[in-house]
Amino acid sequence: MTRPLSPSHAATLGRLERELAYYRRECNDLGARLLRLQEEQSSAFREARRSRTVAKLIREAHRLADTGVPSDELAGPVLEIIVDNTMCDRAALLSESPVGSGRFTVLRAIGLGEQPLAVSVVPDPPSFFFTTAQTPLESPAYELTGILQLPYVLWAYDRSTGYALIIGNRLEANVSRPFEPGDQELIEGGLSVYLDVLARRRAEEAQILLMDELNHRVKNILATIEAMVGCSAAEAGSPEELAEALAGRIAAMARTHDLLTDARWRSADLGDLVEEEMRPYAVADRVRIAGERQPLNPRAALSLSLILHELTTNAVKYGSLSVPEGRVDLSWSRQVHAGGPTLRLVWRESGGPSVTPPVRRGFGTTLIERAAARDLNGAARLSFETAGLRCELEYPLARISPPAAAMAPRIPARQRVRDSVREDVLAGTRVLVVEDELMLTMTLERILKGVGAEPVGPATTVPEALFLAGSERIDAAVLDVNVADEPVFPVADMLREQGVPFIFATGYATDSVIPARHKDVPRLPKPYRQDRLLQMLARALARESASGDG
């Protein structure tokens, strides 16, 4: 028989039971907190491991790119790096074509055998996705698990490029845990590494290609100029004639290069070529031009520019443009023939001196006939009529027209000189020359001294130019846009504050390098043409003088 507890014992027992219950709750709470702490530690460890993995991917992938692997062979080595660092069973890099279609082609796969799926269709592909044992087998899980033929996959997709990366495992826990939302950093990091390295290699390859193309074009230009020197020297009667002929022909090439550069070397319009060449003489109705828009490919544009220059130079020296009452009519039109459409140009002079056939064939005549026939598979007919020279050119449209994709509108870039100004306003002026190329400096000094101007400098660096602009009397300035690899605009700012007129000299065909505050400044294209340089400087001085008088 159990003895009843005394009131004091019963009270003590109740107190002990309450304390036991309290401590039991505390122990449970501590256990829960410990579990949460362990999970946080585990999560932090997994996050740190993912970050270390991505960092390692970046290092190894860029080290791979340093070895010079071609961009179209990067997918395999980069995927191997991803598999080694993520410890997955299978992986694949895919490319969507066209972007946005949901049709993916496997670029490279690991663990799928010799023949992975050629094309996989993933409707509305997600940017990030993963599967676990609880993921229902419906879209997109159905399509994504089908790519690797595994139940547990981790997927990342870049919508802007159409590239995707997918890794997968046979067992949910074969990497100690299932995939989770935090793995987005890992899979997107792996895809980003591939895209970054791919973009880097493509940029490097494009740079090499551009350098090769630039080298090719420069050598072609030098070879052409070398040939011009030889042919011009053979017919020149004096060094002065040789210099004048060479300067004109090189300037014609330079103007055409500007037109082509404006259109990204895709095409140039025939009307623009004619305008560039004939502008100095298109006054008082002396030059009449008629013709519709006709795009030309670069080869045709360069060839026709030289032909037009030879015709114009001959007209100015000996033909209709050598006398005030003479004129030139230039027209072009498309013709239809059984062999295909052609472009026919007719140059006709009138009102000039009586014409007689030349005793010998000069370089200009030979260039016109051979450029038409050999360069463009066309024909040239020169008629030395008593009333004036007549030249007919005819070319197959297929040989002179650019591809349809290249027929883009030309970007207006050059500032054109239209009105003539008396160049004697330059006599006695002091002109600051900022140019770092020796031969160009000598050319500028020769031209300026020839009209009685005094060159100041030349300054070959920006600090030197700033010193001269601040310490010397300057009436005008010619500033090369880039001097010793440094923009010249601080000098332009100082001259503008002082009220000194200046022009920019540049080899750039567009004004993209000119800051907005100086967009109104005239630009002198290289190579330098004496008439254009002097006209620009004279106009700048006249404009400054007019504003000062006002």
Automatic annotation (TrEMBL):
Residues 430-541 form the Response regulatory domain. The keyword Metal-binding does not apply. Its EC number is 2.7.13.3. It comes from the Bacteria. PROSITE patterns: RESPONSE_REGULATORY. SMART domains: HWE_HK (SM00911), REC (SM00448). This is histidine kinase. Residues 13-40 form a coiled coil. It catalyses: ATP + protein L-histidine = ADP + protein N-phospho-L-histidine. InterPro entries: CheY-like_superfamily, HATPase_C_sf, Sig_transdc_His_kinase_HWE, Sig_transdc_resp-reg_receiver. GO terms for molecular function: kinase activity. The lineage of its organism: Bacteria, Pseudomonadati, Pseudomonadota, Alphaproteobacteria, Geminicoccales. Keywords: ATP-binding, Coiled coil, Kinase, Nucleotide-binding, Phosphoprotein, Transferase.
